Amino acid sequence: MSLRATRSEGLVTSVVVIGAGVAGLTAASRLRRGGASVTVLESSARIGGLVESERTEGWVVEYGADGFLISKANMAGHVSGLGLDSKVVGGGNTPRRAYIATEHGLEPLPASLFRFERGAIWELLSSRLLSPGAKLRLLMEPFVPRAREEESVSGFVSRRFGHEVSDHIVEPMLRGVFGSPASALGMQGAMPKLAEHERRYGSVGVALMLAPRAGTQGGLVSLSGGMQTLVDALGHDVAPYTHLSVPAQSIRRKANGRLAVATSRHGDIEADAVVLACPTHVAARLVAGLDGTLADELSLVRSADVEVVSLGYEARDLPSIEGTGFLVDPALGRALVACTWSSQKWRGRAPRDRFLVRCVVNAPDCSDDELVQLTREELRHFAGITATPVLTRTKRRRNALPVYAPGHRALATRAKERARSHGIELAGNGYDGIGVPDCVASGLDAALSMLSAQALHS
Ligand SMILES: Cc1cc2nc3c(=O)[nH]c(=O)nc-3n(C[C@H](O)[C@H](O)[C@H](O)COP(=O)(O)OP(=O)(O)OC[C@H]3O[C@@H](n4cnc5c(N)ncnc54)[C@H](O)[C@@H]3O)c2cc1C
């Protein structure tokens, strides 16, 4: 069978969207509503990409994202627009507190630093994660001069707050969120607000004292039935135009000026424009024949692997567990990166009297069985859990999370402009944020940019 995303009566533009993760689905749906003829190509057998929930016998197991910041990037508006307001779920019955595992046990995570809230400095000063010397060093922060160029997160935080804040607080958090060490991540990509505070106020500490109070910035939520609920809603509109198990192989320009997306199953698909909503390393490969410089730029965005292990238990077999989870200080040299008490963090994740745990583990060379054994050993070590799980799931994601190195923002801007000159929009987690709201916003931006260009030319 051969597909042709042709210009149809009344539709000005035909677009091929490559990748049916949240970014691609959002772009496709908005383009459809804007009157474009859309074909979505997805290499795997399902939509959703890194967002994937398994629902089985009362368990909701998340293989990727397990929640999102509803306050970010107009996400509340998108959720309402998708008719999902009644599906939004908050926490379970436990206080929302996360911990950092240290050699002395679990200590509360000073979370307000990452939410850029007033009180962050006070929270750091009262944390047992820092030595008295490190707290004195914190008080010197207002006198530290501004940086002249973008630094790594570890460079910035060590320079402004001292190395203990960087090593024992920021490092575990960023490894948990980005899957990369803070030394590999640039401030503009990973913690832009702190960098902006330094630029505007000179002192990050002083800026944090002027920041909003805790709790005023809107929170982390999830969806009933898991994050798959979001994917299903996003995919609903575009399902008839979505082709699963059809990887795009390359993009080239035809003699008639149109773009041609090569696929093995459907041959060439012609289009006026393309949204590349696949991982950056794939995007680089797809445009290599069209624009070598763009391919080289995209290849500069490295990505990190992630291994996720979910274990379900009989609740009565577990010791008493507090909070929503913990991050592990990498200085301990353990395989466990982060642990979420999923059924305590969110309502409706486990059947009655059962308990769901989700762990991110750094063990790329383990088999699935070894991953489960290793995770059980880590849970025994950190939380005293010795029970045998009644449910085990593993998921490995290769090249899943892009590494926003110093200079990433400028690179992303350059790549997007260059791609646009070919009629290609770049969307997804490789460019302006890795969170689900960022990816939804990037899909929307890609669609709106295409629709406004089309309006200008029609
Ligand atoms: C373990 C984990 C936990 C996370 N937790 C959270 C969280 O709690 N909250 C949060 O906000 N974010 C979280 N994230 C990040 C967030 O889920 C992702 O950044 C986001 O879902 C990425 O969406 P995307 O559409 O950009 O890309 P993807 O989801 O990667 O989608 C890209 C799609 O392109 C397809 N594709 C690849 N090659 C081709 C090809 N040649 N042709 C056609 N299709 C192709 C892929 O199969 C995929 O479906 C997490 C990520 C991971 C891995």
Shape: globular
Content of β-strand = 15-25%
Largest sheet: 7 strands, mixed
> What do we call the CATH homologous superfamily of the largest domain?
FAD/NAD(P)-binding domain
Mean pLDDT: 93
Named CATH topology of the largest domain: FAD/NAD(P)-binding domain
CATH architecture of the largest domain: 3-Layer(bba) Sandwich
Please tally the β strands and state the result.
Answer: 20
| CATH C-level of the largest domain | Alpha Beta
Structural class by SSE content = alpha/beta
Compact description:
This protein has 458 residues and is α/β, with parallel strands linked by helices. It is built from 16 helices and 20 strands. The chain folds into 3 domains: 168 residues, FAD/NAD(P)-binding domain; 125 residues, Polyamine Oxidase, Chain A, domain 2 (Alpha-Beta Complex); 95 residues, protoporphyrinogen ix oxidase, domain 3.
Question: How would you describe the overall organization of this protein?
Answer:
The structure is a single chain. The protein has helices at 22-33, 75-81, 120-125, 132-138, 153-161, 163-178, 187-190, 192-201, 204-210, 228-236, 280-287, 292-299, 342-345, 368-383, 408-420, 436-457, and strands spanning 14-18, 37-41, 53-56, 59-62, 68-69, 88-89, 98-102, 105-108, 220-223, 242-243, 248-253, 259-263, 267-271, 273-276, 303-314, 325-328, 336-340, 354-361, 391-402, 424-426. It is α/β, with parallel strands linked by helices and 458 residues long. It has a 7-stranded mixed sheet, sandwiched between helices. Strands 10-2-1-14-20 form a 5-stranded parallel sheet. A hairpin with a 5-residue loop joins strand 11 and strand 12 (259-263). Helix 1 (22-33) runs parallel beside helix 10 (228-236) and helix 8 packs across helix 9 (204-210). The longest helix has 22 residues, at 436-457. It starts with 13 loop residues before the first strand and ends with a helix. Residues 1-12 have low confidence and may be disordered. The structure holds flavin-adenine dinucleotide (FAD). Residues 18-24, 41-44, 49-51, 64-68, 247-248, 277-279, 282, 306, 308, 397, 400-401, 428-429, 434-436, 439 line the site of flavin-adenine dinucleotide.
